[in-house]
Amino acid sequence: MKIKNTLMALFLITVMNAQEKNPQDIPYYQIPDYPDSYTPGTVVARMIDGLGFRYFWATEGLNAEDLAYKPSESNRTIDETLDHIYNLSRVVYNSAIKEINDRTQPGEKPLSFQEKRKRTLLNFKKASEILGNAEDLNEHPIIFKTKSGTFNNPFWNQINGPIEDAVWHCGQIVALRRAAGNPIDPKVNVFAGERRSE
Fold it and tell me: Using an 8 Å Cβ cutoff, are 115 and 158 in contact?
């Protein structure tokens, strides 16, 4: 009986620790291990993983007051910036799965903050996994369909466009939430890609 109780206690501690590390069961609490080799695909995947890690922590612990914050009337709110990053994550993911970004269709219905955050992180994670195994990034262009026609852009535009744009906006969120009085967790180490425990 003692062994059974001990095993049950160890199981519960393990589950609680896992939930404490990432209670929302979404990726990028910490950056994944890096690949064994450098290829165009693994380098791009690592860039996306770095973005995912930054986004996770830039958005962790935001509250309704933070989401509504903007420094002036001409600026976006934090929530509007999150909408933009979500749309960028969709462009990155669509490129990975070779899908067209169809701008002729109506947009999605508004998402809750938690759902938007989760979908953004999952888009980055799935794109990273696909592109990390890509043999030829030329096969993953960004394609936009608009009322004016269909436009095919080389993967190069993915790097300097949506990926880097999303990194840029993550930095804005970090600055805006600090100004709103809710700074990012000081234990987050973007160089190591982890949250320090001490």
Answer: no
Among 3.40.1350, 2.40.10, 1.20.120, 1.10.287, name the CATH number for the domain at 2-195: 1.20.120
> Residue 20 belongs to what H/E stretch?
helix 2-21
User: Which sequence spans correspond to the domains of the chain?
Assistant: 2-195
Tell me what pLDDT residue 174 has: 97
- Judged by DSSP in three states, 25 sits in coil
Is the Cβ–Cβ distance between 96 and 127 less than 8 Å? yes
CA distance 190 to 198: 16
Contact, 177 vs 12, CB < 8 A? no
Q: What is the pLDDT of residues 136-168, one digit of tens each?
A: 999 999 999 999 999 999 999 999 999 999 999
Mean pLDDT (the chain) is 90
Count CA atoms closer than 13 A to 132's CA, side-chain side.
Answer: 17
pLDDT digit string (tens) for 112-131? 999 999 999 999 999 999 99
